[in-house]
């Protein structure tokens, strides 16, 4: 196993997925017009912004030579999956900053700037959904490009779709986690009805993920690897149970 491959799964792939709540909640409020979920919007966007900042800082260490982080801006590699991921993350980080900027500007006398930012909110949200969907899925493309380095239980030609669906589920659960923790820290009542609505949607997303995962494995004839008794099969069973099946069942309970 390559150390870079082990570490990058935590600081980039895991970190980016944890920040997925930003584009999900922005799309829920501004595109789907579900205004009852607006209380979750600002915390979700702030968490996404801070999450992507941390990912950028983590990449400075991953690259070894920090100033190389600007290379995708000047050296365009059209056929590179990482090039697409880099540009989407750079652009989405700026979009998140613009989405959260009204919270800062509304405390200042710059009312014209505030009105301008509010007018562009829907555009920023749509752009953010597009960019986030692209790079969340493209992180899975990196694994598709390395079939010889990925075990049969984890390799799939639909990894980009699996990455995107799992990020949506994780983003929703992160919003729930934030709501519960901030409610406890600041001693205010959490709206259980709204949180319950998010929990049900997260459960549906996780069940969709499981259906896609096992359906794909069945179509490709890979299900037999689950029962071959190796440590990989044990790890796979542990992963699926802990990160998908158990949360999906628990989130369905009232």
How would you portray this structure in words?
The chain has 254 residues and is mainly α. 74% of the residues lie in helices and 0% in strands. The chain contains 10 helices and no strands. Helix 2 (21-31) packs antiparallel against helix 3 and helix 8 runs antiparallel to helix 9. The mean pLDDT is 88.
Give the topology.
Elements: H1 3-18, H2 21-31, H3 41-63, H4 71-74, H5 81-105, H6 111-119, H7 121-144, H8 159-185, H9 192-219, H10 231-252
Could you report the average pLDDT, rounded to the nearest whole number? 88
Please provide the ordered H/E string of secondary-structure elements: HHHHHHHHHH
Percent range of helical residues: over 70%
- Most strands sheet: none
Distance, first to last CA: 42 Å
Structural class comes to mainly alpha
- Percent range for β-strand residues: under 5%
**Rounded Rg:** 20 Å
Low-confidence stretches: none
Number of DSSP E strands: 0
Spatial shape? globular
SS summary, helix count: 10
């Amino acid at each position: 196993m390559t150390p870079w491959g082990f570490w990058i799964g935590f600081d980039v792939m895991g970190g980016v997925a944890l920040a997925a709540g930003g584009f999900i909640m922005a799309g829920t409020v501004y595109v789907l017009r579900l205004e009852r979920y607006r209380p979750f919007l600002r915390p979700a966007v702030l968490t996404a912004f801070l999450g992507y900042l941390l990912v950028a800082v983590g990449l400075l260490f991953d690259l070894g030579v920090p100033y190389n982080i600007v290379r995708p801006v000047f050296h365009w590699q059209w056929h590179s999956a990482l090039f697409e991921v880099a540009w989407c993350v750079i652009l989405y980080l700026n979009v998140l900053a613009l989405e959260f900027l009204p919270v800062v500007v509304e405390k200042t006398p710059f009312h014209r700037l505030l009105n301008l930012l509010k007018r562009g909110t829907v555009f920023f949200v749509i752009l953010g959904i597009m960019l986030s969907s692209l790079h969340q899925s493209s992180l899975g493309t990196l694994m598709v490009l390395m079939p010889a380095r990925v075990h049969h239980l984890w390799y799939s030609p639909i990894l980009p779709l699996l990455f995107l669906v799992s990020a949506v589920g994780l983003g929703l659960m992160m919003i729930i986690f934030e709501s519960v923790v901030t409610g406890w820290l600041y001693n205010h009542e959490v709206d259980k009805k709204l949180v319950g609505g998010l929990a049900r949607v997260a459960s549906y997303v996780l069940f969709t993920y499981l259906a896609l995962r096992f359906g794909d494995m069945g179509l490709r004839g890979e299900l037999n690897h689950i029962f071959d008794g190796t440590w990989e099969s044990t790890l796979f069973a542990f992963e699926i149970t802990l990160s998908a099946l158990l949360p999906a069942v628990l989130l369905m309970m009232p």
